Amino acid sequence: MTANGDATVKVVPVRHYGRWVGVVIVGIFLAMVAHTLFFQVASSNVSCHQFAGARVCQHVKVWRFQWNIVGQYFFTSEILHGLLRTIILTVVAMLTGIVLGITIAVMRLSPNRVLTSVAWVYTWFFRGTPVLVQLLFWAFLGYFYPHLTLGVPFTHITFVHLNVNTSLTLMEACALGLGLNEGAYMSEIARAGLISVDEGQIEAATSLGMTRRQTLRLVIIPQAMRVIIPPTGNEVISMLKTTSLVSVVGVIDLLGAATNIYSANYEIKPLLIVASLWYLLVTTVLSTGQFYLERRFARGALRTPPPTPIQRLRTDLVGVASKFRTRRGVEVST
Amino acid sequence: MVKIRDVRKSYNGIEVLKGVDLSVNRGEVTCLIGPSGSGKSTLLRCINHLEKHDSGELRVDDELVGYEMRNGRLYELTDKRVCQNRSRIGMVFQRFNLFQHLTVMENVTIGQMKVLGTGREDASKKSRELLARVGLKEKELSYPSQLSGGQQQRVAIARALAMDPKLMLFDEPTSALDPELVGEVLEVMNDLARSGMTMIVVTHEMGFAREVANTVYFLDGGVIEESGDPRVVLNTPSSERLKNFLSKVL
Predict the structure, then answer these.
(1) pTM greater than 0.80 (yes/no)
(2) pLDDT tens string A220-234
(3) Nearest CA in chain B to A304
(4) CB contact under 8 A, B163 and A200
């Protein structure tokens, strides 16, 4: 019972006027973006036709972003082949980078000083020079080393012999270059993950009689993954875009395909949009994959896993609906 | 079962164990008590070679821990041999140290499967029995983070027991628990002691030491100050240090 004898009191939520103003401003801005993206404007081209005996001329209306031409090129085989190369480069470079990164991180944490120093120098070198320079180096590897041989140093014993100019394709050189560079960054990410695992976990594994290798594989790495995955997802997305550098050394990736086409027909704007949209699309797919991967590796670390986007949308909709039902105040029974 | 003679250990020049002697017979419960920093945890960790002792003799089941005597010399054992020996010594930690990414069931089966090479069927069967024994049959599929401290510690005991240990080491098993959860863990340990398990327990639970232990060792400053039957040692302490210590903890 309340003071005035009512069985119920109404709770009126705080009104956030500042937020509403913000929403209006953002709304106007969004409308401007939509307008410039999707409404046609008069171009400098004039088209004329006969109308009731008179010649009538008017400016042709076009999309500023030339969506019609974007659509025309979106699925051409040249673009799709470029996209395929971009994806292959991303996958190969990232796989190389992850394997190398974990290896170097484990070396870095080894009790042996030679291994830690080598790992440190590797990271120092590949993080310390621009990836474009490294790519150029790998692309022109043949100038430095026309022949590669694997054998015992200072002797004439050789096991493998390779003619670099004929056997290493440009695409392979680029994948190698990007992968080695990525290895340096991944090693730091992997190291952060490995040292984030509580020492007690290692002691527990050891006291069960697990070997060092088993402890690493069964206990440390699975738990380090939770820390390693988010920045690795970031690296994958970053790598997808970094691969566009290979167009500089003449690999026809997604961007390379787009520039090839527009250097022939001068449709620069729409082709850059085609490339950008494809990058965006692949990035979106990757981000979604990252979300589910993180969710999987968070097992045991969180009492309740975060909701999936679909679950969140559902709760949002339910929330908005209930808000509308109780807009005038929440009924509280006393 | 366990024979320790003149064991010494130092960290960065500071001597933590200054010549400790201790022996434990099969089926006996031994409690190590003493103020923090007295070296009791270090001693315990030397027994399963989580720490390497610097000198002295440490034997479990008449075998040297971590070393091998050949032609009058001590040879350090390979990683693999140390691991084999260790797997038969169970250890329970203050902070439980359950594998966070595995379910309760997986925590108990992983050692059996990966170290002992038991098949999944047998390992699961045994794990169920052990979980039932510590009263957590229904928590099989939970993750450690979903359990209370007491429940986690009981899983940790089941995990250690799954390896068929001949010796169980407890490193302050109840120190990280809320007071009302201490009882459930001590009960499991009590039960284990009654079943004839050889146990060495580092503890601050004087009640447990008094009721369950066959022998109590009081460590202070890296040496054993006093030892013997708990009813004698704890009720009529002879050294000033132990009197002082007991007046603080009781």
Answers:
(1) no
(2) 999 998 899 889 999
(3) B146
(4) no
